[in-house]
Structures are given as structure tokens and as C-alpha cells.
Amino acid sequence: MAKRSDVDVLMERIGAEFEALPRQLQGVARYLEEHRTSIMVQRVNEIAEGCGVHASAVVRFAQRFGYSGFTEMQAVFRDAYTEQAAPARSYQQRIRSVIKGRPDKLPAVEIASRFIEASKAGLDELSAELDETRFQAAVDMLSAAENIYVVGVRRSFAIATYIAYALQHTTKHVHLVSGLGGMYREQLRSIGKGDAMIAISFPPYGKETLYAMRVAQQHKANVLAITESDLGPLGRHASVVLKVKEGSAFAFRGLTSTICLCQALFVALAYKLELTVEETLSRGEYDD
């Protein structure tokens, strides 16, 4: 089973205790979630400025969660994100780090097995933690929408493309916000009240996805966020949040759990829409 990082454990604790935190410490919690991949290189004063609080509040936050101070908490983020913090880190560099970490040659089948096990672990976690109320709310929201817009960039683009393709098999008007030619604004121009957006993003969050979400909200559309935390910039502002955490192996995160969740969402929506059609036909035959 894929090992969860200490940062994941810490953010889960923060999420569980978030409502009980004083207002200033809630601000620190939000900042950590939004900037979790760069916390390791920021000074306490920089974080405090970003949160709009005094540096002592950041220290109190760290102590609240069992650390001696900010430096000890920062080390947790540094250890967890050394392998993935720099946006310029290439796939080739990550592969080389795997080779460096294994003096003996790694069989191809072992690489495959590790990825399969990580994906299975992610699916097990998704099954155990899927929120029934939220999932039903997501289906209901999409069912009521006149138009459905889907956005996801970089590693989430494959997921967005799939769910947009699947939704084309329903009666809904579906729009994939691809930003082709830099036309995010133009592709979102018609979104409005009564519409819904599916926004898919994970840390570090895609700025294009966050922009699309803000446009949707400004135009009074509902937003379904598919992400890993309620505290992130997607989770905090969405109408409905579906949380999913992927298993990882060799510093590469999978897509299996997110694809599975989106497939389940599509099937549940299609089922609900078909039931609605059947009920309408039945009532029509009875009225005749």
C-alpha cells in the first residue's frame, strides 16, 4: 500500500480541526494548503505576510499541531516535497533519482507492480472515504444544470477530457474548457446561472483552473471541485467538493482513482437522467 506522507497526515489533522481554530490560525491553514509545495523555501515572516498575521501566529499554529516551532513544521514539508517542489523538475530527472536510489537494476515488472499496488491503494482509500451526501449532491447539481463546463490542466487535462467525452453521451450541453489559443475567457463567456462547472485540480493548483472557477462564480454558476482537500483554493470556494487522493510510486502520482471517480459520476448522472426520462414518459402515457 502506498505510504502517505507526513504532510498528508498533517493536512488531514488541520482539516479535521479547522472549524475549531481561531480566525488567524484558519488563515495560516488556508495558506499552507494553497502553498504547500513552496512552504519549504519561505521564511516565517513571508508566510505571516501572506496570511495577513503576525509571525507569532504562524509559530502558534505550528505548536498547536505538536511542533516546537515553525522550523520543525517546515521540515515536514521539505521532506515530503523535495522530490516534486520545483515546477521545472523534469520526468527525466525523476527517473534518474529512482535509478540513483536503487544500486541494482530495477526489473520492469517490479515498476509495473509498484504502480499497480499504488493505484489499488488509492482506489481502496477512495472507496472507504467517498462521501455519499456529497456524491449525491454532485449528481443532483449536474442533473439540474443546463450546460456543463469542464476544466482541468496539465496532468488533470486527461481527466477533464475523459469526463467531457463521457458527458457528451447525455442530453446535457457539454463544454471542454481547453484554453486552445489562450481563449479561456472566450470559452467561458457564455457560462451563467443554471450552469455547472466541473473543476479538476490538485496541488500545486493550475492557475487556469482557478481562473475558470472564479469566472463561473462571478456568473452565478455552480462549481463541482474534484480535488484532494476542502482547504485548498478549489475546495474552499466550490458548491460541492469530491475529494480524491491518488497513490504514488517513484515520485509519480497516479490517475486511477480520479478516473474511477469521474466514471462513477458519469454513470450515476446518466442513470438519474434516464430515470427522469422514464418517469416523464410514464406520466405522459397515463395522461393520455
Automatic annotation (TrEMBL):
<dbReference type="InterPro" id="IPR001347">
    <property type="entry name" value="SIS_dom"/>
</dbReference>
<dbReference type="InterPro" id="IPR000281">
    <property type="entry name" value="HTH_RpiR"/>
</dbReference>
<dbReference type="Pfam" id="PF01380">
    <property type="entry name" value="SIS"/>
</dbReference>
<dbReference type="InterPro" id="IPR036388">
    <property type="entry name" value="WH-like_DNA-bd_sf"/>
</dbReference>
<dbReference type="Pfam" id="PF01418">
    <property type="entry name" value="HTH_6"/>
</dbReference>
<keyword id="KW-0805">Transcription regulation</keyword>
<dbReference type="GO" id="GO:1901135">
    <property type="term" value="P:carbohydrate derivative metabolic process"/>
</dbReference>
<dbReference type="InterPro" id="IPR047640">
    <property type="entry name" value="RpiR-like"/>
</dbReference>
<dbReference type="GO" id="GO:0097367">
    <property type="term" value="F:carbohydrate derivative binding"/>
</dbReference>
<keyword id="KW-0804">Transcription</keyword>
<feature type="domain" description="HTH rpiR-type">
    <location>
        <begin position="8"/>
        <end position="84"/>
    </location>
</feature>
<dbReference type="GO" id="GO:0003700">
    <property type="term" value="F:DNA-binding transcription factor activity"/>
</dbReference>
<dbReference type="InterPro" id="IPR009057">
    <property type="entry name" value="Homeodomain-like_sf"/>
</dbReference>
<dbReference type="GO" id="GO:0003677">
    <property type="term" value="F:DNA binding"/>
</dbReference>
<keyword id="KW-0238">DNA-binding</keyword>
<feature type="domain" description="SIS">
    <location>
        <begin position="138"/>
        <end position="280"/>
    </location>
</feature>
<protein>
    <submittedName>
        <fullName>RpiR family transcriptional regulator</fullName>
    </submittedName>
</protein>
<dbReference type="InterPro" id="IPR035472">
    <property type="entry name" value="RpiR-like_SIS"/>
</dbReference>
<dbReference type="InterPro" id="IPR046348">
    <property type="entry name" value="SIS_dom_sf"/>
</dbReference>
